[in-house]
Amino acid sequence: MASRIFLDANIILEVIGKRKYKELSKKIITDNEGSVFISALSAHLIVYFGSKFYDLDRINDLLLGFEILPLTSDDISWAFANRRDSDFEDAMQISVAIRNGCDQLITLDKSLARKYAGLSSIKVVQLA
Known about the structure:
Elements: E1 5-7, H1 9-16, H2 22-31, E2 36-39, H3 40-50, H4 56-63, E3 67-69, H5 73-82, H6 88-99, E4 104-107, H7 110-115, E5 123-126
Parallel strand pairs: 1-2, 1-4, 2-3, 4-5
Helix pairs in contact: 1-2, 1-3, 3-4, 5-6
């Protein structure tokens, strides 16, 4: 069975915003094509920030390359119960990834990776 890779929003925002880790982020996406997942929360962030660079049709085309996982009330409950600090969004992303059986969550967020390292249900990988 192929790995299920959950991408934190910042990976895709690197590509859209043409930031420092754009090429590394693109490689992660390309190398894992067909097994890459994002949350509905990430999709919202990508549309919001991406619209500063691209029109909505182009952003929609980009999002079609990912399976978008829903955010549920269970994720919100999990995030409140298991958050490691005041960054509630990080906890919700972790919850969506775990609930959907993802093996890894890949992020550029050093704080997220540090806070959630060692979870038995998912491996949190800091990309750079």
